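ARCHIVE CARD
CATEGORY: sequence design from structure
SOURCE FIELD: tokenized fold
FIELD CONTENT:
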């Protein structure tokens, strides 16, 4: 599994390359979700992304992310 620094580095790469990423993160209720996202930007401890699974733009706190895998 990737550590927090590696997840952050992979998200920076995905933003720069306009890559889609499978992202696992904790929901507001604590459930683990896995969504296909396209990160748009990273700022202030959050990733802003188009969530292809949900069909919307969403902001996900980096502290809730547990895994990522670039396509």
């Amino acid at each position: 599994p990737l550590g927090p620094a590696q997840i952050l580095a992979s998200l920076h790469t995905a933003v720069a390359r306009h890559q889609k990423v499978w992202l696992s993160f904790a929901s507001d209720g604590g459930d683990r979700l896995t969504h296909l996202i396209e990160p748009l930007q990273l700022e202030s401890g959050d990733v802003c992304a188009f969530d292809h699974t949900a069909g919307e733009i969403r902001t996900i706190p980096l502290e809730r992310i547990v895994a990522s895998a670039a396509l």
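CARD ANNOTATION: The helical segments are 4-17. The chain has a mean pLDDT of 94.
SHELF: design records, drawer C
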